[in-house]
Design brief:
13 helices; 6-stranded mixed sheet; 376 residues; Lysozyme-like; alpha/beta
């Protein structure tokens, strides 16, 4: 089925129940990532709460066996089997139809299909009356809470795609029984690839990059510009530069946003700037660093597209092929290097303006200020 099954079994506080008439649907209220199911399952092992399955886009994590009561659906705990989906109740219809959520719904549909077969549960969303009467079917946490008023939870939220999900359960039942059925609605194919992360997650990381003055829009789609800026940031903080803003990159972005100039006379760390212009990162702004940064500055439009140390030297500084011809590839490498310089200047406590690859007036003022403080 294209996903992995892991057992992160809770071995305490288990109570048996043989009544099974509701398949409960929940959101974890946790970020959507490729390890969310495992992380939340491990969390459940430590607290007085749990679920039968935790699902994300590539795995399902078993927390307790089917016979055990899951303490997650007050009012119907003893009669329910429960699935926790990565994400939030506040998600929009578009959030539920991104690549991550569509893959996750497939995982959850397979879990539910196994129960449908095992416990003879109809594939339908229960009404309040049906829940109260003990009828069999599916219900969200919000539905059961509306009937029994024993919690304030409203997951899986008003935008959860019930019709689509139940149809995928029906398809999964057919696959398990080796009796294929046609889906009412084919699985949508998003026209972008978020590399295992949801639109909500990518949007949050884009907003962090924007807070660091990178010039992009928070679309929730991991496009070429977001990957380009992410790679720049990852290189500067010493992470693997794959362009995918995962948990480690997210933490580094948070740290960069929280970092403020301390107002002391201690010189800012210029190692990231040195790495940006491909000189030895010894945190000493000496002649080699100065020469390299000035080469980038002078090769810009503001600097007059000049090459005081020769085209080949500037190409070496920006990481282009040293052929002595300042063509399109060299200009593109120059602009990428300016992005790195702008990012480094900001991390040092200066304000280069938008991180856009253009050495403009704000970038120049930030460079002059940094040079005055750091140069030896």
């Amino acid at each position: 089925m294209g996903f992995t099954t892991v057992n992160i079994l809770k071995d305490r506080d288990l109570v048996r129940s043989d009544d099974r008439d509701i398949i409960g649907i929940h959101t974890m209220e946790a970020p959507e990532g490729p390890q969310t199911a495992e992380a939340v399952a491990n969390y459940f092992k430590r607290v007085q709460a749990d679920s039968h399955w935790c699902c994300d886009n590539n795995s399902r994590a078993r927390v307790i066996p089917d016979w055990a009561i899951a303490w997650t659906l007050p009012g119907a705990n003893s009669r329910s089997l429960n699935i926790e989906f990565a994400g939030y109740a506040r998600q929009s219809p578009q959030d539920w139809r991104d690549a991550y959520s569509l893959d996750m719904l497939e995982v959850g549909a397979y879990c539910a299909a196994e129960w449908v077969i095992k416990y003879n549960i109809p594939i339908r969303r229960l009404s309040d009356t049906q829940i109260r009467n003990g009828d069999k079917g599916f219900a969200g946490h919000v539905d059961v809470n509306r009937v029994y008023h024993q919690s304030s939870h409203w997951d899986p939220g008003p935008s959860f795609p019930w019709a689509y999900f139940l149809d995928r359960v029906r398809v999964a039942v057919g696959l398990i029984k080796n009796q294929p059925v046609e889906p009412a609605e084919p699985k949508p194919q998003p026209d972008w690839n978020n590399h295992g992360y949801s639109m909500a997650w990518i949007k949050a990381q884009q907003e962090k990059l924007i807070d660091l003055d990178f010039d992009l829009a928070p679309t929730g789609k991991l496009g070429s510009l977001t990957m380009k800026y992410t790679k720049v940031f990852q290189k500067l903080v010493g992470l693997v530069a794959d362009g995918v803003p995962g948990p480690d990159t997210s933490k580094a972005l948070d740290a960069a946003i929280a970092r403020k100039p301390d107002g002391s006379v201690r010189k800012p760390n210029c190692r990231a700037l040195q790495r940006a212009v491909r000189v030895h990162d010894d945190n000493v702004w000496g002649s080699a660093t100065d020469k390299a940064v000035l080469a980038v500055r002078e090769a810009s439009v503001l600097g007059g597209n000049d090459f005081p140390h020769g085209v080949r030297f500037t190409q070496e500084v920006v990481g282009a092929i040293k052929d002595g011809i300042w063509g399109d590839r060299s200009r593109e490498a120059h602009d990428d290097t300016v992005i790195s310089v702008q990012t480094a200047l900001r991390a040092m406590g200066f304000r280069p303006g938008p991180v856009d690859g253009v050495w403009g007036q704000q970038t120049d003022e930030a460079f002059v200020a940094a040079r005055k403080v750091c140069r030896v």
